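seq:
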Amino acid sequence: MTMRFNLQLSIPLLFFIFLVGCGGGSGDSSDGYATPSEVKSEDVETTPVEGASDAEGTLEDDNSPAFVLTSDSFTDGNAIPLLNACTALGGTNTSPQFSWANPPAETAGYALIMDDETSTCEAEPLSCVHWALFNIPASTTSLDSDLDISTIDGAVEGYSYIPTIDYEGPCPPSVHSYKTTIYALDSSMAEVPANPTFTRSMFTSEFSNNILGQAEIVGTFTPDSSPSQETFSVTVADNNNGPGRVYVINGQQKSSLTLNAGTKYIFTHPAGHPLRFSTTADGTNSNGSEYTLGVDRSTSGTTEIEVTSSTPATLYYYCSLHAGMGGTATISGAGSSGTRY
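struct:
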């Protein structure tokens, strides 16, 4: 018997089988497949990209401006002006100007320390601190040159290495570097009492939990190898205020002089009235002894003295042959003990 395939009848049959096999479009998704509208967000498993959140945080940090400390007096890594150095080296002991910007968030106050840790300073008890300021308000973002600390409400100064409660300018025997650090402090930082003693390392160690950030600037100072020089022409005249003769300097009888450490002074005087120095008023005429450290009187009619930081704070000039002729010489930037940096 021969079977014939009727194409017209077969097509509807095949279509029916296809619909049954695929669910017939009935909307029943029990076979495990879902339409896009049936997919819920909580059903979607995602794999985080390792380091993605870290990269975003780094980007924010990179875009944040850095906490910086600058100075109108000098630039980072360069020379500190003579104006800001000690008087013994020809400076005026004037504090530099400082400004800071972009402190960390939540900064409630500041502290500033300038020190020299160049050898041999690192072995010193105060590590050669030249300036220390504490309790600086958060509203203050700069310090004027030649600062008057009383203009900053609540601020106090700490001991320098001298030790003094004040700014002490660079005074090194050779080239030294000076680092100034501004510390941004949080609101839990206790008020520092007056006249404290802190080097940078001491401060960071004691208040590490209060320091939000810090910024630094470094300056150098190189002393002039030769001291400056000044000459006084000394004459002799009758005493206007009593008997005898007296020295006349700068037009004044028995003039009171101010001599600066770091300077050589040359006194030219009549050979018959030799000028000398002593730590006693009227010197050898009053049973005192002659001061000779740094003094050269090898040339007749001339007496030279090189004033240094170790020169006594007060000297008296006098005539070694006649009593009552001299006066007082006050030494600026001298009379301190120990080596200066």
